[in-house]
Model the fold of this input.
Amino acid sequence: SEKEKQRDKFYEQMQKAIKKAAFIDSQHLLAHHQYRVYSDWRHLAVRSLIGMHGFNGDYAELASWLNPAISVDDAKESVELLELCGLISQDKKGKWILTHKSITTGNTTSRIALKGFHQKCIALGSESIDRDPPHLRNVSGLTLGVSKQSYDRIVEKLNDVRKEIAQIASEDTQADQVVQLELLLFHLSQK
Done:
């Protein structure tokens, strides 16, 4: 009958709307967790350590591997968050492993999250100058006068170098340490 057809059509539309709402909710949930991953430098450092060494559940040991060291509770929170985001999982023997060798922020990560992440990493780099001996860090800088055209060329070159470095790390089968590279180019003048 016509009423049944209308009812079925309405039901289908309602189901589509429910699926769309559920999809949107899951996107917001993922965005929130993704924001949390980038809210603190330690989460990605813990992920890298798990990728290199695996992790058997000794949170005190994991916490001590970082420089600066983190608390046991912070290590546990990082592992829980990384699992929640699907970035790590346990193998058949209970050892934590990476679900993907490399990750990228793509276009979906909040600019606010990335801004905070880079600010914290730059602060860690600054602290490293006082904390770590020179052979454990590399710091250099240039003060330059450049045109807009040269500035754009430098940015392009930095992007290329960053990709090359990521490729080197991706191909490294003997990685045994976590490092953070922050490339920072900023204006010292208003003209």
